[in-house]
């Protein structure tokens, strides 16, 4: 049975992570997943007609996480 250890690397969407990913790959780390983990949301809401209303919402991702695994040799 295989046993793994895990590493999570957080970065901003504007960062170029290929160098870090290649370095981790050279050390035996396998990239499992990349996902956004934090988002900034801005918006406004106007209530009219007894609580019904509308508004605008916008947002962008602030942080992304990359998940790696590496097999532990027994």
In words, what does this structure look like?
- There is one protein chain.
- Strand 2 and strand 3 form a beta hairpin.
- The protein is built from one helix and three strands; from the N terminus they run βαββ.
- By secondary structure, the protein is mainly beta.
- The chain starts with a strand and ends with a strand.
- The chain is elongated, with a radius of gyration of 20 Å.
- The longest helix is centred in the N-terminal third of the chain and has 9 residues.
- The chain has a three-stranded antiparallel β-sheet with strand order 1-3-2.
Q: How much of the polypeptide forms β-strand, as a percent range?
A: over 45%
The H-and-E topology, N to C, reads as EHEE
If you average the pLDDT, what whole number results? 89
- Considering DSSP H and I runs of 4 or more, what fraction of the residues is helical? 10-25%
Structural class: mainly beta
- Biggest sheet overview: 3 strands, antiparallel
Number of E-type strands:
3
